[in-house]
Amino acid sequence: MKVLRSKKKEFSEMIEKHQAIIHRVTMVYTNGPADREDLFQEICLQLWRSYPNFREEAKFSTWMYRVALNTAISNVRKKNRDIHFEQLLDNDRMETESSDEKEQIQLLYRAISKLNRIDKALILLWLDEKSYDEIASILGISKTNVSVKLVRIKRKLEEMIFTQE
Amino acid sequence: MNDKKLKDMWNKAETLMEASDYKSSSIEQFISGRSNDTTQKIKTMIIFDLVLKAISLCVLAIDFVLYFGTTNVMSVTIAGIVLLLPLIFMQYKMLNRFSEAADNGQNTRDKLAYMLTYLKTKFFTTLLSVSGTYLFGFIAGSLVYFYTAYGYVRPLDGVDFVVFLTFILIGIAFNFFVNQGQVKYHIKHLEICLNDLNDKNLELVSENIELQRKRDRSNKILLALVLVIGILLLVIVFKNIGFIIK
Fold it and tell me: Does the beta carbon of A103 lie under 8 angstroms from any beta carbon of chain B?
């Protein structure tokens, strides 16, 4: 019991350090603060359950991305509420930004929210500066496929953002 | 818009949304919580059923002791135990396979493909096995009840028999269709995701599924046979006989 408690503590501290990864995933896959918190909790739980299978040969952050994205992609909900950017973005902080920047960020999120779950994962990993090799290893597709898909997704995002502007 | 601009926008948004940082104490609470994931619900269903089967097995063993000397009831309990043992073993193997398929630590393609293959090939067998538990649980429990209430197995009249059997069959059917409905939606979702990942993925997985289905046909036939034998046991216990404890 004591061993389990200390393992949990150690694991929680590791997640605390790397939690930005989970936040990025929840930001892209949810529609508001309540959903975001639910998914955050679910990802933490799945990370803990998969932890015994974690092999040191992979980077901890890569493994975390794998589990977080797999959880978000498989997370089936019948109700798909529309995304509310007022809820998604922290309004107090947003007030300090220029309205132009605010609008651009909202447009980016609106565009990403319209992508399918797999494309969301690809663009998220690319935006987080992951190499094509790493993206391919996390998603289990070829490097060529990653490259082809990213070109298409970026073009799609560009079109969506410019159309809405 | 170039790549740099897109990344700058993303970084800006990230800085703005760093408000809800969790402390390790909160994360510790999260990992002790309950999962709402569909795969986790299926896993819980398999584990719960495994426990129920193990309890039914123990109760049947107790029935064997209680009715020791009454050959017909002893034969029924032995038949129940003999049928339950391989079912428990099979269920345990299914649980292991499901845990492997459900592991989120593998890459996305493998996770989606293994889960889809499991749900399309093994889930029906799992449901059949889960449904069978009702029968064995009912037989084991009823034998204990009759022993404590009457000291022997009271023969049921036609109406009693129809009512009991109807309840059991409704229970089996309800459990079967509710779970199947839930999983159908999940299967559709997995197929869409696999297709989005790569157009050829679904094709390859479908071929694998067909192969697995052919291999699993004998398992399904065996399970269906166990269910039929279980119902026959029920008929033997309650319809034809009135065992008196000597």
Answer: no
pLDDT at B34 over 90: no
In tens, the pLDDT along B50-89 reads 999 999 999 999 999 999 988 888 888 888 898 889 889 8
The answer to whether A50 contacts chain B (CB < 8 Å) is yes
Q: Pick from B1, B104, B115: which is nearest to A161 by CB?
A: B1
**A92-165 and A1-80 share a CATH fold:** no
The answer on pLDDT for A82 being more than 50 is no
Please tell me the class of the A92-165 domain. mainly alpha
Residue B172 scores a pLDDT above 80? no
Domain A1-80 indexed as CATH 3.40.50.2300: no
ipTM of the complex: 0.83
| 3-state SS class at B21 | coil
- Nearest C-alpha neighbor of A157 from the set A118, A119, A121: A119
In a domain, B199, yes or no: yes
Transcribe B110-140 into DSSP letters. HHHHHHHHHHHHTHHHHHHHHHHHHHHHHHH
Q: What is the pLDDT of residues A31-45, one digit of tens each?
A: 878 888 899 999 999
CA distance B69 to chain A (A): 46
Residue of B nearest to A115 (CA): B196
Q: Could you list the residue range(s) of the whole structural domain that residue B130 is in?
A: 37-240
